[in-house]
UniProtKB/TrEMBL annotation:
Higher taxonomy: Bacteria, Pseudomonadati, Bacteroidota, Flavobacteriia, Flavobacteriales
Gene3D superfamilies linked to this entry: Vaccinia Virus protein VP39
A Pfam family it matches: Methyltransf_33
GO aspect biological process, one term: methylation
Coiled-coil ranges per UniProt: none
The Histidine-specific methyltransferase SAM-dependent domain, residue ranges: 14-320
Molecular function via GO: methyltransferase activity
Record flagged with keyword Methyltransferase: yes
Protein's UniProt name: L-histidine N(Alpha)-methyltransferase
Transmembrane segments: none
Keywords assigned by UniProt, alphabetized: Methyltransferase, Transferase
Length: 321
């Protein structure tokens, strides 16, 4: 059954999974890794010593908090809008600086999950009661559109953690262009981009010996089993990471260790694997200034300034229209 009626799919997850597993080569979309368990595993990844991205960006924000706050500041105050705030650990470094210098600002974290926002609001109330927090539940772009409509004061849009790296360049340009569409001339975008570096350091960050990244990657199969009635045996797949220093693209795969079949009841699908056949699951793009400038240009933005850690492992860029 290669061409199922559209109505067969109850969710986008079901439809995308069907498409990915009936394609050649097979693929699954990394955005579906993030259910409750996937979120927890990602938190653990961010705490791993091998996952240098978190520490590098933390250092940048810590070392440059004053200079960054200078850039954000505006006579009539500003709204600091964060897309995908998570636990806010890194953002708190900037909030602390802004509170200390008595900046006139409100912090608007945007997330699809009300649970994430409630936790963040609670921890900010406790740790930084002086911060004016207005949580925004919704998708990034709908929320940005809404905020652009009624907002007159300067907007500073914050996207930390190199999340853009999980998008192919074409999608990354669309992502930036959507943000640009909500920006006026006075607004700025502050965004993290993981940089090209020693290939081994990148491979190590995505293939830790404790197997946390492996469990994160395999969570796609675990979710298919739980939500779509699949019978995948995750142990029969290998977590495999590659990095191409020419393109700067790190890729994650699940590789079938044997010839095997898996069925997915809700998709009425039986998936056949040859021995060593792959499922591509994620890209984690690494950048340099030339790529970032090109992406910005394509999206109608200009790079105004960047901040980097001592080893140029990671950079945060400021963009304007
Ligand atoms: C969320 N994103 C930026 C992470 C990354 O580095 O690509 C997701 C991740 N995948 C494996 N480890 C971390």
């Amino acid at each position: 059954m290669k061409n199922p009626p559209e109505t067969m799919f109850e969710t986008a997850f079901a439809e995308d999974t069907y498409k990915g597993l009936t394609s050649y080569p097979k693929y699954l979309l990394s955005k579906y890794i993030y259910d409750q368990k996937g979120d927890k595993l990602f938190q653990q990844i961010m705490d791993m010593p091998e996952y240098y991205l978190t520490q590098c960006e933390h250092n940048i924000l810590e070392m440059n908090a004053a200079a960054i706050a200078d850039e954000f500041n505006s006579e009539n105050g500003f709204d600091l809008i964060e897309l995908g705030a998570g636990d806010g650990k890194k953002t708190k470094l900037l909030l602390k600086e802004l509170v200390e210098r008595k900046s006139d600002f409100a912090y608007l974290p945007v997330d699809i999950s009300q649970h994430v926002l409630d936790e963040l609001e609670g921890s900010l109330k406790k740790d930084m009661p002086a911060v004016k927090v207005k949580v925004q539940q919704g998708t990034y772009f709908k929320t940005l559109e809404k905020l652009a409509e009624y907002n007159s004061r300067k907007k500073v849009i914050l996207v930390l953690g190199s999340n853009i790296g999980n998008l192919l360049h074409k999608r990354a340009v669309e992502f930036l262009a959507n943000i640009a569409a909500a920006m006026s001339d006075d607004d700025m975008l502050f965004m993290g981009f993981d940089q090209k570096k020693h290939p081994q350091k990148i491979l190590d960050a995505y293939n830790d010996p404790a197997g946390i990244t492996e469990a994160f990657n395999k969570n796609l199969l675990v979710r298919i089993n739980a939500e779509l009635g699949g019978n995948f045996n995750p142990d029969q797949f290998l977590h495999w990471e590659t990095y191409d220093p020419e393109t700067g693209t790190a890729k994650s795969f699940l590789v079938s260790k044997t010839a095997q079949k898996a069925s997915i009841e809700k998709l009425r699908l039986e998936v056949q694997f040859e021995a060593w056949e792959s499922i591509h699951t994620e890209i984690s793009q690494k950048y340099d200034d030339a790529i970032v400038n090109w992406l910005a240009d394509e999206a109608g933005l200009k790079v105004e300034r960047s901040f980097s850690d001592r080893d140029d492992c990671f950079k945060n860029y400021i963009f304007r229209k």
